[in-house]
Amino acid sequence: MKVFAINNINVNFYGNKVLPVHNALPVKSAPTNLSLPDALNGKTKFYVDNVNKLRNETKEFPNDVEYRKTLLKNAGMNPNEYYKIRSIIGPDEIQSVMKQYDNDGNLYSVGVNDENIKSGLLRANLHIHTQASDGRLSVEELLDKAADYANLAAKKQPQFKKQPFTIAITDHDTTESAQKAIKIIAENPLKYKNLRVILGTEVTTYNKIAPNLVSEPTNTHVLAYGIDPNEKIYKNFIEGTKNRKNELEKRMINDANELGKNIFVLNEAKEFSNFLDKKLIGICNHMASYLKTKYVLSEIVCKNDEIKSLLKQKNMPTEPKTLIKELDEYLQERYNRNKPINPKTELVDFIKDDRFGEILTKEYENPQHKEFLQKIDEINQSYYTKMDGSEKFHAMPKFEDLYNGLKGQKNAIIGLAHPLKPTWNLNSADDKLTFLKDFYSKFKSAFKEKAKFSEVYYQSYKQTAEQPVQTFLNQISKALKLFRTGSADSHGKNIFKRF
């Protein structure tokens, strides 16, 4: 804790928070001939000196200075204070980080028994989610955890002084977290001085990849780094996609109610699923999950006298509206809800009674129930993105749509998120390689000069089983001049692990 005198009042300083100090020893006043605007606002010499260091650091990547100025200007803040968001890096420094780590996947790895975390050798996690999409941490919590590790790593591994710990905030289909990060870092720049932050988005797209192998467009996730979350064209792209998903949700609810039960409610669906509420990823399966769950609760569980008796014995509600809320709360406690649920399986786990499982299984065999649930599946399928474009309503963007949405983002660079994931349902290594060739080719063709990297060093890959394919990822990335990056794709409260 440092003590300074400002306007003849003794204060202590932590970060940029100034608190009164009682009975402090007399100290010299901070000089008035300071070089930054902060000097005019009563800041301490300690603060100004350290912020000056941040400004000097920005000189190494002058183009990124302009990026920071634009970020602040479009956020309604003072662009002349660009040094306050020195921790946020632009395309030049981002690519410098990628270049340094391109040949060493261990720098993205937690190591055996988390050894790289303990020793401070882990240098980057370039794919992290917050509560803005399907993560568990707030933006501030994420930044604080990352800053704590960055400070530790700076002490334990001084040889990496010019390679600070770097994170990328990449929430699904939203710029909300990037907007918050700018303000949080600007308010307390010294707190994050040892951390580097990439503002990004993980955008869900659907593309016709390897049509000779797969019958439907592939759900392909793309990472956009170095974005300006307040730039108009990109904001319109993000909001336009959300609006189309909202319309899709309404249509699926209406189609389900037209089956005759009229029990489905859009607001209830949004409460039930974070993905439906925030318009994340492809939402058809999440809506179908809600429709099935509400039907099972309304037409099976709460209309069966024996099941209702069991619920009463357990002091559980017997009304579907209340029961679905309690089910959702239960599921949220068990795990981060990032996948559509199977109501039959989850209800058995939720109610925890052998008799209930037997009754529910028997009810599922009722032809009336089987027919209705089948019709919900048919509604779901009718809204899937199709190879020939014949879906009922087109909601999802393609590679080309995203590229056009980035026209105003001169600093953005694009990469493929977890490129092996779309191949996991393919049986042979040959099929996977064929798919990946087409995948990478179409990615490079669509994103042109912005295509810069692919997540080759992704923690969740099964290295042994996928070795031929992993080798191919290395080869094709080099051939297409794409940096090989890595991540944990973190969703939980541990910023180094996936969940």
Describe the structure in your own words.
With 499 residues, this protein is of the alpha/beta class. Helix content is 45%, strand content 13%. It has helices at 45-57, 62-74, 91-101, 115-119, 139-156, 176-187, 232-257, 266-272, 274-278, 284-300, 305-313, 320-334, 343-351, 354-364, 367-382, 399-405, 429-447, 467-479; strands at 2-6, 9-14, 17-20, 124-128, 165-172, 195-207, 218-225, 413-416, 451-458, 483-487. The strands form 2 sheets. A 7-stranded mixed sheet has the order 4-5-6-7-8-9-10, with helices on both faces. Helix 17 links the parallel strand 8 and strand 9. Helix 17 runs parallel beside helix 18 (467-479). The longest helix has 26 residues, at 232-257. The radius of gyration is 26 Å and the shape is globular.
Q: Biggest sheet: strands, sense, closure? A: 7 strands, mixed
Record field, number of beta strands: 10
Separation, N- and C-terminal Cα atoms: 36 Å
**How many domains, as an integer?**
3
**Which runs of at least 5 residues are low in confidence (pLDDT < 50)?**
1-35
CATH hierarchy: architecture of the largest domain? Alpha-Beta Barrel
Order of helices and strands: EEEHHHHEHEHEEHHHHHHHHHHEHEHE
Keywords, please?
499 residues, alpha/beta, TIM Barrel, 3 domains, 7-stranded mixed sheet, 3-stranded antiparallel sheet, 18 helices, 10 strands, disordered N terminus
SSE blueprint and pairings:
Blueprint: E1 2-6, E2 9-14, E3 17-20, H1 45-57, H2 62-74, H3 91-101, H4 115-119, E4 124-128, H5 139-156, E5 165-172, H6 176-187, E6 195-207, E7 218-225, H7 232-257, H8 266-272, H9 274-278, H10 284-300, H11 305-313, H12 320-334, H13 343-351, H14 354-364, H15 367-382, H16 399-405, E8 413-416, H17 429-447, E9 451-458, H18 467-479, E10 483-487
Parallel strand pairs: 4-5, 5-6, 8-9, 9-10
Antiparallel strand pairs: 1-2, 2-3, 6-7, 7-8
Helix pairs in contact: 7-10, 10-12, 10-15, 13-14, 17-18
